[in-house]
Amino acid sequence: MSGPIDCIIVNMNGADWLRKSLPGISPQVRKVIVIDGDSKDDSVKYARSQNARVKPLHGNPCFPAGNNIGIYASDADSF
Predict the structure, then answer these.
(1) How many C-beta atoms lie closer than 10 Å to residue 35's C-beta?
(2) How far, in Å, CA of 64 to CA of 50, rounded?
(3) How distant, in Å, are the alpha carbons of 19, 41, 55 from that of 48?
(4) Residues 48, 49, 55, CA angle at the centre, nearest 5°?
(5) Rounded to whole angstroms, how far apart are CA atoms 56 and 73?
(6) pLDDT by position in tens, the chain (length 79)
(7) Element containing residue 34 per DSSP (H, E)
(8) Does pTM top 0.90 for this prediction?
(9) What is the C-alpha separation between 74 and 41, in angstroms, rounded?
(10) How far is the C-alpha of 4 from the C-alpha of 77, rounded, in Å?
(11) Rounded distance, CA 67 to CA 65, Å?
(12) Rounded distance, CA 74 to CA 31, Å?
């Protein structure tokens, strides 16, 4: 692959999952974008502590819509 790669994660109350997955994201990934559906846990705080860009939403977006929001928030060549 050539050009920048961004990782898009659609999340709602997935802090435990984020703790397991964010540290293992490839160093080839330029930016991690977390689309958060109004989480009540500490997902947003944790994602930001890992230097992820967080796009908070009101309500829980469906998975395809969340990914589309992430794509619009990115300027990468690949996701």
Answers:
(1) 24
(2) 24
(3) 12, 13, 10
(4) 5
(5) 12
(6) 577 899 999 999 999 999 999 999 988 899 999 999 999 999 999 999 999 999 998 877 788 888 888 888 888 887 7
(7) strand 29-37
(8) no
(9) 25
(10) 6
(11) 5
(12) 8
Q: How far is CA 4 from CA 17, 71, 76, in A?
A: 25, 13, 5
Distances (CA, A) of 28 to 36, 47, 62: 23, 18, 27
Separation CA 30–CA 60 (nearest Å):
26
- Which alpha helices (DSSP H) does 1-79 contain, by range? 15-21, 43-49, 63-73
Structure tokens at 24: 């293992």
Distance CA 65, CA 22 (A): 21
